[in-house]
Amino acid sequence: MISVEEALARILAAIAPLPTVRVPLPEALGLVLAEDVIAREDIPPFDNSAMDGFALRSQDSKERQGQPPRLKVTGTVAAGYVADHAIEPGTAMRIMTGAPVPPGADTVIQVELTRHGGPESDWVEILQEVKPGNNIRPAGEDMRHGQLILPRGSEIGAWEIGVLATLGWASVPVTRRARVAILGTGDEVIEIDQPLQPGKIRNSNSYLLEAAVRRAGAIPERLGVARDTVESLREKFSQAINADLILTSGGVSVGDFDLVKNIMSEQGEIQFWRINMRPGKPVAFGHIGAVPLLGLPGNPVSSAVTFELFGRPVLRKLQGHTHLLKPQIEVKVEDGVQERAMRRHYVRAYVRWQDGKFVARTTGHQGSHIMTSLLQTNALLIVPEGGVVVQPGDTVQAIMLDWPENAS
Ligand SMILES: Nc1nc2c(c(=O)[nH]1)N[C@H]1C(S)=C(S)[C@@H](COP(=O)(O)OP(=O)(O)OC[C@H]3O[C@@H](n4cnc5c(N)ncnc54)[C@H](O)[C@@H]3O)O[C@H]1N2
Ligand code: MOO
């Protein structure tokens, strides 16, 4: 049996990022930029007003003999339009937020600091002296033509989409999404819309994995369930040949019908199987032809947990991410973990912030068949190898499943 760290390192070493494609900007959410984004113009593109008010020359805002200066209003510049004349000494123009500053003006005073005769008024009194540049957002203040704005490798979130839209990137070069073939195995496993029969259980793993794959930004394809025969598995694997990753569940342990490993040796190679962890000991990794295959255990909780620990980082690496792993923090375990495991134990828990600390409560019975132990889980507590008991109030490391992956 190898350690979790060694397994992860060996799996990731066998994975390379997928090719680059160009996608429409809205579809780039969650993907990784494949080229540097360099501004091809200044942003803002022109000097513009930060306030609704009046554009004027700052000299004209100075008091005269204790009186506020009174200027002639020569027109209005609305956002989206350009003034058709310049500001001359002693004049001002009404200006709206976002409108280009007219030539001749070097400052803007907000409307609240003026007195005027209404929207059509041809005069305005300036009630406060304003400095040059006041309320003017200069061209290029945000981004300069030629400036590197987002380096390749950046993850595209909603805010990056906003920046790219600002620069007019209607389509974006990204590392493409991974296609993932998902295969259940086992004669006992039936489809979820079938009535239960003696000895049978529903194929929950394929659905859980499909959702988890989609949440990781990849494209899942469920191939159904292979019977416990070499022929059935061969037939299913032949459908997965164009995938970027094959995920199986079940059939990787030592039972008489655990045949996934046999097919891996027949059609590719097994790099390893069995990891010193609970749940999830019989994880297998290798290839079918050139396609990497991650064989997850059949027990549903084992399959869910090992997907988070190995499958998700694989998908992130395939999709060009450099931050692969969820952050770990120290938490205080309110209820403790009494179940002893000789393997490293990943205990499902809910972590909350309370009185200045992270506090965890486990989700109850931790058997690898207890689906309900996955509910209300937002963290995996790491109980070290060797049968360690965690007493109530003890501190352990927790992997925060809902937090974004770390720089690592
Ligand atoms: N003699 C040994 N037996 C077992 C060992 C061992 O070391 N020696 N390891 C146990 C552990 S730990 C695990 S985990 C399981 C993993 O076995 P497999 O990955 O080969 O999975 P199966 O035997 O096919 O199934 C295990 C369990 O999961 C249920 N299952 C399978 N597929 C699905 C599915 N798609 N949806 C829902 N549930 C599924 C299946 O019915 C079994 O109950 O092996 C132990 N045995
Ligand atoms: O590794 Mo198994 O996943 O303990 O149930």
From TrEMBL:
Cofactor: Mg(2+)
Alphabetized UniProt keyword annotations: Magnesium, Metal-binding, Molybdenum, Molybdenum cofactor biosynthesis, Transferase
Pathway per the UniProt entry: Cofactor biosynthesis; molybdopterin biosynthesis
Catalytic activity: adenylyl-molybdopterin + molybdate = Mo-molybdopterin + AMP + H(+)
Annotated GO biological process: Mo-molybdopterin cofactor biosynthetic process
Name of the top EC class for this enzyme: transferase
GO molecular function, one term: metal ion binding
Gene Ontology cellular-component terms listed: cytosol
Record-listed E.C. numbers: 2.10.1.1
UniProt superkingdom: Bacteria
InterPro entries: MoaB/Mog-like_dom_sf, MoaB/Mog_dom, MoeA-like, MoeA_C_domain_IV, MoeA_C_domain_IV_sf, MoeA_linker/N, MoeA_linker/N_sf
Annotated MoaB/Mog domain residues: 181-317
Family indicated by similarity: Belongs to the MoeA family.
NCBIfam families to which the protein is assigned, alphabetical: Glp_gephyrin, molyb_syn
Role: Catalyzes the insertion of molybdate into adenylated molybdopterin with the concomitant release of AMP.
Designated name of the protein: Molybdopterin molybdenumtransferase
